[in-house]
Design brief:
By secondary structure, the chain is an alpha+beta fold. It is built from seven helices and nine strands. A hairpin with a 4-residue loop joins β3 and β4. Helices cover 27% and strands 23% of the residues. The strands form two sheets. A seven-stranded mixed sheet has the order 1-9-6-2-3-4-5. It has a two-stranded antiparallel sheet with strand order 7-8. It has one domain: endopeptidase fold (from Nostoc punctiforme) (Alpha-Beta Complex), CATH 3.90.1720.10. The chain is globular and about 45 Å long.
Length: 213
């Protein structure tokens, strides 16, 4: 077990069960989100996971009901999520990657989902941010086990979303004071899911529980 995972697991073992669904959440499937055309390239998609790491994130970020985030990439044939995460269970990948939406929201990985979209008039910025995120995947940017915001060659999930948008002109955490947490590399100021969800640059599109959860 890596120091990162063991550190998160040790913390998670002290936690109460993951948070209850938000009262505004309604049942949905990954397929219905895609089939109804409700997702667009550049949307910011959050999920609430089941793992010990997910529980640790929820404990650390008490302002959020979601433990992971990525950027939607929609093609004519399918919907994907560009994200990065540490190895967990059977998922051994630890670089920025593109996963099908139904895999990102599979029952073993997610119990609830929330989708945010860039506020204001339609623009090319969400697509540009998604393209920037795709470049991170193409470069096989590894997961940042040190949770450092000072390096661009490694990223954690919220950092990836923040960087993708910032590099095309939208700083999703502008003016926000970041919380510090303990990490295996020391105390770090980190971007939490709630920091992104609180951004005035984003608006809530939908918040739903997943069928069968």
């Amino acid at each position: 077990m890596t120091p990162l995972r063991s550190g998160f697991v040790a913390l998670a073992l002290l936690l109460s069960p993951a948070g209850a669904p938000h009262p505004d959440e309604t049942p949905v499937t990954a397929g219905s989100l895609a089939d109804l055309g409700r997702l667009q390239t550049g949307d910011v998609i959050f999920r609430r996971g089941h793992s010990l790491i997910s529980r640790a994130v929820l404990r650390i970020d008490r302002g959020s009901e979601y433990s992971h985030v990525g950027i939607v990439v929609r093609t004519p044939r399918a919907v994907y999520v560009l994200h990065t995460a540490p190895p967990s269970g059977s998922d051994t990948a630890s670089t920025a990657r593109l996963d099908p939406l139904d895999q990102f929201l599979s029952p073993e990985r997610a119990s609830a989902v929330a989708v945010y979209r860039l506020a204001g008039a339609a623009s090319e910025i969400p697509s540009a941010a998604a393209a920037r995120a795709l470049s991170f995947a193409a470069a096989h940017i590894p997961f940042d086990a040190d949770f450092s915001l000072t390096t661009r060659d490694r990223m954690y999930c919220t950092e990836l979303v923040w960087r993708a948008y910032r590099e095309v002109g939208v700083d999703l955490i502008r003016g926000r004071e970041l919380e510090t947490i303990w990490t295996p590399a020391g105390v770090r100021a980190v971007v939490r899911p709630s920091d992104l969800m609180s951004s005035p640059a984003l608006r809530l599109l939908t918040r739903e529980v997943l069928d069968g959860q």
